[in-house]
Amino acid sequence: MNETFPKLRQIVALTMLMILGSVSFASAEDNTIYFADAGENPGHVYASPPVGMESSLFTRAAGNLYSFTFHPIKEKLYYCNANDNKIFRSIQSCDDPSSWLPEEIVYTHATYVRDIAFAKAPDERQRLFFSEASGSANNGKIYYLDGTATSVLYFEVPLEAVDGFWSGDFAFDDGGTLYLSSGNIKPASIYRVGRGGEVTKIFTDTAEPIKGMAYKDNAIYYGNRGKMIYRLDLSTMTKSEYRTQEGHKWISDVGFWDWTQSGCAGSAGISAEPVGVSPIGYIAQEPNPPQEGGAAGLGSASMPALYRQLEASTQAVSMEPNTNRPDWDYSNFDLGEADPNLCAQACADDPQCKAFTYVKPGYQGSNARCWLKNKASNPVPDECCVSGAKGLG
């Protein structure tokens, strides 16, 4: 009997440590924030825990990753490249959580998909929402997929209600209230959309952009298109630093992995899609494809046209060596050759483009990169780049 009680105490102590350990771990998981860096190719979704170093949760085989959202079933990740018209999905392996199944296209839109999120639709079911936007050119739109691979318009973002610019970033709170953020401009604001569709500005950051957002516990978290993640307390409208992700230059989206169930209990959990997303591999087309030459005509199918031989421009574009024109981006892409004339020609060919910045190889990856802008900001000396604006050449 004397030997039994010490052993029993050891078992109880170990059990308590396991319980406390699991509680501590769950709390840490709750405070882990995930983020994407749109400047990376291939794109990643990173995990940033409260303590310790960041780690890569997911890496694409190829291509940038601007926005992401987690499915209510734990193992499913959805993401998009804001300069592509597709929504992708990858499923985490149940046998090896460090590996993911090859990405699948779950939806193809008529124009670029800027941001995505899961939320309750008017039918009270969780649906996949996504946005299209063209900066300052036209009103933005937010859609959801209705369960039959059909997009349904949920809300049209009037430019006059968002100070004339919206790059497509949005988020929902737990009660279904919609929030919008300006995107890659300064100053940038966050807006709340009322039940009647009225748009109210609730916060302005005069110093930094406000990119992708996530809601949690009466606060909005957002990336600054740099290395910072901020927290905005909705009770006090106070902004505070939440994470500093050294080495990152373009945090474009943030999120939390708040899942309600696991799909690994059986194979049906993996294949079932009860929340309004088309089956794996199914590609749905919008009924009205983009017209040639319009803003939607910059979809991935027409991108190779940007690499053709230079032709006479419909409107002259200036060439400014060692110059950057920051902000007002609506499209960016790698160039097949390190030639700023290709970027200038792409701007000249697009009626929406008012200015461009060509980034030399080695600054944003091994390839040269072209940024098209729907407004011409003031030129800034920078040896990284060559820029130009229409009407100045």
Strand order of the largest sheet: 21-25-23-24-22
Q: Write down the overall mean pLDDT.
A: 80
The CATH topology of the largest domain: Neuraminidase
How are helices and strands ordered from N to C? HEEEEEEEEEEEEEEEEEEEEHEEHEEE
Q: What is the CA-CA span between the terminal residues?
A: 95 Å
Q: Tell me which CATH architecture of the largest domain applies here.
A: 6 Propeller
* Rg over CA atoms: 23 Å
Structural class, from secondary structure content? mainly beta
Quote the beta fraction.
35-45%
Specify the helix fraction band: 10-25%
| Model regions low in confidence, pLDDT < 50 over at least 5 residues | 1-29, 265-314
The profile of the biggest β sheet is: 5 strands, antiparallel
Number of helical runs? 3
Which descriptor suits the 3D outline? globular
Q: Provide the number of structural domains.
A: 3
Per DSSP E runs of 2 or more residues, the count of β-strands stands at 25
CATH superfamily of the largest domain: TolB, C-terminal domain
CATH class of the largest domain: Mainly Beta
Give an overview of the whole structure.
By secondary structure, the protein is mainly beta. It folds into three domains: 1-26; 31-271, Neuraminidase (6 Propeller); 295-389, Hepatocyte Growth Factor (3-Layer(bba) Sandwich). It has helices spanning 4-30, 267-271, 340-349; strands at residues 33-37, 44-48, 55-59, 67-70, 76-80, 86-91, 104-108, 116-120, 126-132, 140-145, 151-157, 169-172, 178-181, 188-193, 199-205, 213-215, 219-223, 228-233, 238-244, 251-255, 320-324, 329-334, 355-359, 369-373, 380-389. A five-stranded antiparallel β-sheet has the order 21-25-23-24-22, with helices on one face. A four-stranded antiparallel β-sheet has the order 3-2-1-20, with no helix packed on it. Strand 9 and strand 10 form a beta hairpin. The longest helix has 27 residues, at 4-30. The chain starts with a helix and ends with a strand.
